Amino acid sequence: MELTKTAEVVLKKRYLLKDDKGNVIETPEQMLWRVANAIAKAEEKYGNDVKKIAKRFFDMMDKQLFMPNSPTLMNAGTELNQLSACFVIPVEDSIDGIFKALWDMAKVQKSGGGTGFAFSKLRPKGDIVKSTMGVASGPVSFMKIFDAATEQIKQGGKRRGANMGVLNVHHPDIEEFITAKWEEGVLRNFNISVAVTDAFMEALKNNSEYEQINPRTGEVVRRVPARKIFNLMVEGAWRNGEPGIVFIDTINRNNPTPHVGMIDATNPCVTADTWVMTSEGARQVKDLVGKSFTAVVNGQSWQSDERGFFSTGVKKVYRLKTKEGFELRLTANHPVLRAKKITRYKIETEWIKACELKPGDKIVLNNHRDYGEWSGKYSYEEGYLIGLSLGDGAIKSDKVILSSWGNNRGAKVKVAYSFATNLPHRRDFRGWIGIKGRNRYRLSMGYLRKLACELGLKPGHKTITEEMEKASSEFYRGLLRGLFDADGCVIGDRKRVSVRLAQSDLQMLKAVQRMLLRLGIYSKIYTGRRKACKVLPDGKGGLKEYRIKPQHELVISNDSILLFYERVGFSDDKMEKLRKLIESYKRRPNRDRFIATVEEVILEGEEEVYDVSIPGINAFDANGFIVHNCGEQPLLPYESCNLGSINVSKFFKNGEIDWEWLKEIVWLAVRFLDDVIDVNSYPLPEIEKMTLANRKIGLGIMGFADLLFKMKIPYDSEEGIEIAEKLMSFIQEESHKASQALAEERGVFPNWKGSVWEKKGIKMRNATTTTIAPTGTISIIAGCSSGIEPIYALAFKRTNILDGEEFFEINPIFEETLRQLNLYDEELIARVAEEGSIQDIPEIPDEIKRIFKCALDIAPEWHVRMQAAFQKYTDNAVSKTINMPNKATRKDVEKAFLLAYELGCKGITVYRDGSREEQVLKTKKTEKKEFRPIKPTGYIEPRPRPKITTGRTIETRTGCGALYVTINEDEYGIAEVFVQLGKSGGCAASQTEAIGRLLSVALRSWVNPEALIRQLKGIRCPSIGFDNGEIITSCADGVAKVLEKYLKGEYKRIKVAVEGIKPLTEFVEGESEAHKTKLIGGVCPECGNVLEYGEGCMTCKMCGFTRCG
């Protein structure tokens, strides 16, 4: 493996194994063999030649064609063996859930992984906490706890902790979240992004308001102008690159396993009385709390987790009503399955929150036609007699009486008699008995009274009860037949046939509708036939006009008629009529589409609600609707990313890309990454379960800028965009083919059933195969440009931290080009290193300038277009920074955000050069902020120090030991500060003494103490300390915090009478907006070389130090 000096340093410092004393004990080649052998062990279970495949893996890495993510290089073949780069940890809205996430984060980061969190479920600041009758502090306050914990955890001893924090734009605390990092030093270990929805972007486009919703209750807290929030995001990104934006609906539209979970959803919940279809029949949520069960969704069985349904608290509940009669009570943020597009042959669906539904939207219902039967209590015969009694019966205190009128002694009466004699009855049971003079017949049974009581029926109360809905499928068929025999009818002719059931009890009709749906029979309810008079039997053999209650009608039509005929039917002449009409059809009736039309979603009040987890389908049947279960975060809860990148610059040979060679490496890399999943040691069992279920891998690229240099194609050109699309589409297609081949060899990923891939009929080993990931240090090892980023600078002046040697590091392709043109000399390289770019160097030809552009030479639009070009052919996200020059305006940032959304990017991160106090890699193009000092009339001399001062000495703890800060006052205020660092001497002692002296001079020169505190607070050194639970990031930070507390009166201050010289009425500010940038920034804390900002992180290209956030 050919290594640059920098790569050698990075490997020795970060990757190569060391003994207990820190001595390197392996060579780069041995490292690669360690990795290759460890990953190839997975091939044993598939009966392949491990040594042969390990050699192929080694060659691929040794030739720098492919590199896996850093944890794989560091840990493969070691006792730790944690090989994944990043993990998603769910954060639930409870103190237990929050600190479970914190514990999980610690375990992951200890093993060498990065962590991502969606904090959108947490209730907003000021919301009630019923368990303590207090108020919530909100997501940002808890993020600070996560940040502090990360500060103390160094990932695997080699990688520093890094977090991604996401908050949905609809969260009420979104303004606090966006502005959280405007103060330097806050959430230092977090990159933050706002999850922006299509609804928000639409409101922005229309210059209208959007809703901010309390995730605990689903209640709209306020409506806010979208422009106001968007401007805050733009301002933050312009100030210091944060927040980024995640276009969450775009991500969900491309989610390959929507049945497993929606990304960044908040807790969906339903009420305790919701009916859920299970393998044992219908059950209410209240029956399934704490009990594992098998859910039936669209006729297929899915096992819940061991918790069953669980309470998620008291929340606002809404009623979703449809025109067809189906109803459901749920929280506002509960996703239901909407039909996005309905064609003759298929229905395209999407998840949508209940609060976002509009009248007329089409909701998908469960189709259980293929499910068949389920066992349970009660028989077909019992069901029939109960159904008949609901229509033509009366429940007495000692028996149930069935009635029949007229001279009808036909099938219905015979069936009822037959079923009754098969049930327990008295010896003197005589069946149907005529009522003298009334032309009426009665059948009475004591057993039916007992059965009716078991089923929840009472005298004067005839309806379908909960116990009836929980009964067996045989009971269902019997009950429905008896009810339709009593009150049903067949209407129509050869062209249009329907079966109808009329009732004044609407809730009873809705129960019938649910029961029919579970049997695969679709129906509609038409409500509101007014009160009227109707001629009915008078019980004496004649007819009489009666006033009747408002009537409602359930109607079955289309091909559900056929299923009704087969599974329910009638027992009298109505069955014959239905048979003849069905036989008269010249073609099969129209298909029922199992769709319901939204009528309204209305608030009902507050009550306890419940959720459930159904792994594999992540949905359940709720009152017939297909609804989502537990909310998910990106990736999904406990998913991990297993990443690797191909160095595409290596594949340019003889003036073109060697596509066949590239294909070979793509296939081998996919096999490598799939093997990683099998041999990985996961930090948490939940992570192992989810990762193995989806088997997501992320194959990406690096060296793209180098490839364009070799091809002599400018990054900011249509040719460059075209190459990006051609290259990534090829890798995407071939990685999919490779995954399909592995599926044939090893089987599909466990969550394949129900995925987008199953719907397409494509067997895949991996749910996703491509990602453009950050490649900070692995691109150094591979000796190429990072990811898909343009080169930041063509030459640097480096200092080797191992031997102190200074040298120029030059892009090798640029160097070769200069030598070919006889332009190379040390003086020119020094100028390039100084400038960072060649655009203003006249000796370099324009054609070379056109090709060798650096990040800041490229307009933001081209950065966004390049990201979009790669996103077009990437399964997962594309990591890229939209670099902007210091002079870029807020309008430039806004344009970049809007263009990214328009072009289909899944997210965007903007960085304006020089905008952070911790300034990263600087070139001459990094413009200094304008500084306009107040013109002094003369220099201010410090007031003399009095011979006697009074004050206090305060001890604080730092990472370097105990720090003693003495604050003395004169009659005008603080006059001096002495700083002493424990027993330390040498450099540390002299620096702390210098801080005290400079503070003293500034304070006696009337500089505002608060300005001095702002300058010192947040300065960091590698050693962090804690003082009574407060983080002290350096000695300077410790001094600042002591001063701040002193001024706030937290330490007892000495009062001195103010007499004598009149003090100045205004402080001279010790800083201006122009001078907020610390000049000490941009230096690697470990080796002293410059830091480079890209892909959301600061990276030292000399030693590999990385910090994100």
Structural features, described:
This protein is of the alpha+beta class and 1109 residues long. Among the domains are: 86-253, no CATH class; 270-366 and 597-628, Endonuclease - Pi-scei, Chain A, domain 1 (Beta Complex); 380-593, Homing endonucleases (Endonuclease I-creI, Roll), CATH 3.10.28.10; 950-1071. The protein contains 32 helices and 52 strands. The strands form 18 sheets. Strands 36-2-3-8-9-12-44-43 form an eight-stranded mixed sheet. Strands 13, 18, 19, 22 and 33 form a five-stranded antiparallel sheet that branches.
- How much is the average pLDDT? 84
Determine the number of helices (DSSP H or I, runs of at least 4 residues): 32
Poorly predicted sequence stretches spanning 5 or more consecutive residues: 259-267, 631-635, 918-922, 927-938, 1053-1082
Radius of gyration, taken over Cα atoms and rounded to an integer in Å: 37 Å
Please identify the oligomeric state.
single chain
What's the number of extended β-strand segments?
52
- Overall, the morphology is elongated
CATH architecture of the domain at 380-593: Roll
Taken as a percent bin, the fraction of beta residues is 15-25%
As a percent range, the share of helical residues equals 25-40%
Query: Could you give a short account of the major beta sheet?
Result: 8 strands, mixed
Could you say what the CATH topology of the domain at 380-593 is called? Endonuclease I-creI
Q: CATH homologous superfamily name of the domain at 380-593?
A: Homing endonucleases
CATH class of the domain at 380-593: Alpha Beta
Record the strand order, biggest sheet.
36-2-3-8-9-12-44-43
